[in-house]
Amino acid sequence: MPTRTSTVPDVQVASKLFNGFADRTRLAILLHLADGERRVTDLVHALDGSQGNVSGHLACLKECGLVVDRPAGRQVFYRIAHPEVYDVLRSAEALLAVTGQAIELCSNFETKS
């Protein structure tokens, strides 16, 4: 269990990390990448989104160090950069298994449609 000796900057950085996971499109991208490498076109199809939107979110995830890319000829494949990202996704899934209904009904964290 983490100690409570975190400094304000640590909390601010952690908040930025969770803000990245909080975006619906970025979270969906990470969940798809948890199954393996994907190209932008694969993610566009899976998310029923636009190429520009998916590319922008991938650029954000890459800049933050959560995703890396691998050029292969004219294609670029994206994958999760660190195993700890998988850990966060698995932990969130486990937490939702026990708190999902309360979170879904919670009016404090409304999601955008």
Q: Write the CATH architecture name.
A: Orthogonal Bundle
H/E element order: HHEHHEEH
Tell me the strand percentage band.
5-15%
Shape: globular
CATH class: Mainly Alpha
| Whole-number count of domains | 1
Mean pLDDT: 89
CATH topology name? Arc Repressor Mutant, subunit A
Head-to-tail CA distance between termini: 35 Å
Number of strands: 3
In order across it, which strands form the biggest sheet? Answer: 1-3-2
CATH superfamily grouping: Winged helix-like DNA-binding domain superfamily/Winged helix DNA-binding domain
Please give the share of residues in helix.
Answer: 55-70%
Which structural category fits the helices and strands?
alpha+beta
Write down the Rg: 16 Å
Q: What profile does the largest beta sheet have?
A: 3 strands, antiparallel
Unreliable stretches: none
How would you describe this protein?
This protein is an alpha+beta fold. The chain has a single domain (11-105), classed as Winged helix-like DNA-binding domain superfamily/Winged helix DNA-binding domain (Arc Repressor Mutant, subunit A, Orthogonal Bundle). It has 5 helices and 3 strands. Strands 1-3-2 form a 3-stranded antiparallel sheet. A hairpin with a 2-residue loop joins strand 2 and strand 3. The radius of gyration is 16 Å and the shape is globular. The mean pLDDT is 89.
List the helices and strands and how they pair.
Layout: H1 8-22, H2 24-33, E1 38-39, H3 40-47, H4 51-63, E2 67-72, E3 75-80, H5 83-105
Antiparallel strand pairs: 1-3, 2-3
